Amino acid sequence: QVQLVESGGGLVQAGGSLRLSCVASGRTFNSYILGWFRQAPGKEREFVGGIRWSTGETYYADSAKGRFTISRDNAKITTYLQMNRLKPEDTAVYHCAFASNGMRIGVRSREYDYWGQGTQVTVSS
């Protein structure tokens, strides 16, 4: 199995920045995908973005594109979510997720096999 640990969440004022990290351990596959999701209280979990590990290909939700950037560090088996120009509506628990298969970067939660416990991001106005 794969274990995922997120970190980097916190409280930031609107317009500020945060960088989240996700460290993966355990058995992995060459073609795996690491995705970022978020869930605010009373709302459905939504896709933020993802990265294909073998190629570095990234894909972002419209809400994240232009403000958020996903990167990777192969030596540390770590993915980062750089969040800039944060808005109050970005407030949520952010989760890292692992998918072992897929020709495309999935946007649905059920396409991912393992999940981290999440890190809280709060953006104040």
Structure characterization notes:
The structure is a single chain. This protein has 125 residues and is an all-beta fold. Helix content is 0%, strand content 51%. It is built from no helices and 11 strands. Strands 2, 4, 5, 6, 9, 10 and 11 form a 7-stranded mixed beta sheet that branches. The protein has a 4-stranded antiparallel beta sheet with strand order 1-3-8-7, with no helix packed on it. The termini are far apart. The model has no long low-confidence stretch (mean pLDDT 93).
Topology, element by element:
Blueprint: E1 2-7, E2 10-13, E3 18-26, E4 33-39, E5 46-52, E6 58-60, E7 68-73, E8 78-83, E9 92-99, E10 114-115, E11 119-124
Parallel strand pairs: 2-11
Antiparallel strand pairs: 1-3, 3-8, 4-5, 4-9, 5-6, 7-8, 9-10, 9-11
